[in-house]
Amino acid sequence: MDFRLNDEQEMLRQMVADFADQILAPEVMKRDREGTFPHAEIAHAGELGLLGMIVPEEWGGAGLDTVSYAVALMEIARVCPSSAVTLSVSNSVCAYPIWRYGNDEQKERYLRPLATGKIIGGFCLTEAQAGSDATNQKTRAVRQGDHYVLNGTKVWVTNAHVGKVFIVMAVTDPQAARGGISAFIVTPDMPGFSFSAKEEKMGLRASCTSSVVLDDCLVPVANLLGHEGDGMRIPLNALDGGRIGIAAQAVGIAVGAHEEAVKYALERTAFGKPIAQHQAIAFQIADCATEIDAARLLTLRAASRRDEDHDRAGPEAAMAKLYASEMCNRVAYKAVQIHGGYGYSRDYAVERFYRDARVTSLYEGTSEVQRIVISRAVLAG
Asked: Domains plus CATH for the chain?
């Protein structure tokens, strides 16, 4: 069993690392303070093929495997977690379901611009009363002639205000099993589509998040993704890839925080020597390094499993997301602790990593939901 990246994956990792260090890093602290979206930097990412990583080349994508995708997100999140989630959402839960379930007309119209980096996309599943209980959807889609009329509100939509294509879940048959949910390709220029004010978030402040309001939103019948009633099959499959993306993001955040902690521990002196030479600090560094490596391997295993079978990676993705997200919160906490009082200052990167880490155990399925997925798989034998 070879745990090393192959030559192509290593070349990609280095290319993305250079992009993160040279393009994303210079203004990352400023973007966090001001809550500004990195338009130019994301456009640059699109030019590098990072907005179509898992889309086949025939549709304008890079045609990368999921392992390469995870490796790329780790490097981006190591520097700018906000950019990592922007890319993860557009790739995993917008472009991917259009590629997997869309027809050729939908792919040409919506997937190709996403994959070539001309636009970014988002995903509208969560509602005020439909978070972990995703089937409890209140958004309705009623067919009227050659359109569906959508009414409802989606919350916590990543890439709101900046995205040009959104996958929206809505109930088409309230009497059907699992809510009769269907998926639609919706764009902000459709009548009845609007965004609420941007959310003021604790972390990931350079990513755009808000609610999407659908008020008699007119969506052409041609924009139904798959068939009526396919809805939950589509997001659940997409979320397996999304959870691998969040796991990769969590690993990257942990690496970034840990690198800052190691650097500080080597420079800061106490009692006549660098604090890294004190066992109390050295053991924390060792524990963090071990946990990061374990999470990285879990994430790459889940990615490899998804490459083998796109429909059978659910438990592995849940394990990776669960462990990596909780690990990155522990590592970020210790990184702040190692910095002492300076870790509480916004002048130091660990404070930002600490805030950015918190959401990883919440979005695209809370830790509790991941444990449900894992336990069901284990108990089913």
From this structure: 7-120 (1.10.540.10), 122-225 (2.40.110.10), 233-380 (1.20.140.10)
Q: CB-hemisphere CA count at 13 Å for 273?
A: 6
User: CA–CA distance from 151 to each of 136, 169, 216, 227 (Å)?
Assistant: 15, 11, 5, 19
For 224, phi then psi, to 5°, come to -65, 130
Beta carbons within 8 Å of 251's beta carbon, 6+ residues apart: 74, 77, 292, 295, 296, 299, 324, 328
What stretches of the chain adopt beta strand conformation (E)?
121-124, 140-144, 147-158, 165-171, 181-186, 193-195, 209-220, 224-225, 269-270, 273-274
pLDDT tens sequence across 40-56: 999 999 999 999 999 99
- Identify the active-site residue in 326, 351, 364, 368: 364
**Nearest-angstrom CA–CA distance, 357 and 59:** 34
Distance between CA atoms of 376 and 83, rounded to whole angstroms?
Answer: 33
pTM of the model: 0.96
What pLDDT was estimated at residue 104? 98
In this predicted model, what pLDDT tens digit does every residue of 250-280 receive, in sequence order?
Answer: 999 999 999 999 999 999 999 999 999 999 9
Cβ–Cβ < 8 Å for 323, 248: no
pLDDT beneath 70: ranges in the chain: 1, 178-179, 231
Q: CA 144: distance to chain centroid?
A: 35
Distance CA(145)–CA(128), nearest Å, equals: 30
Structure tokens at 38: 């990195």
Q: Is 364 a catalytic residue?
A: yes
pLDDT of residue 178: 67
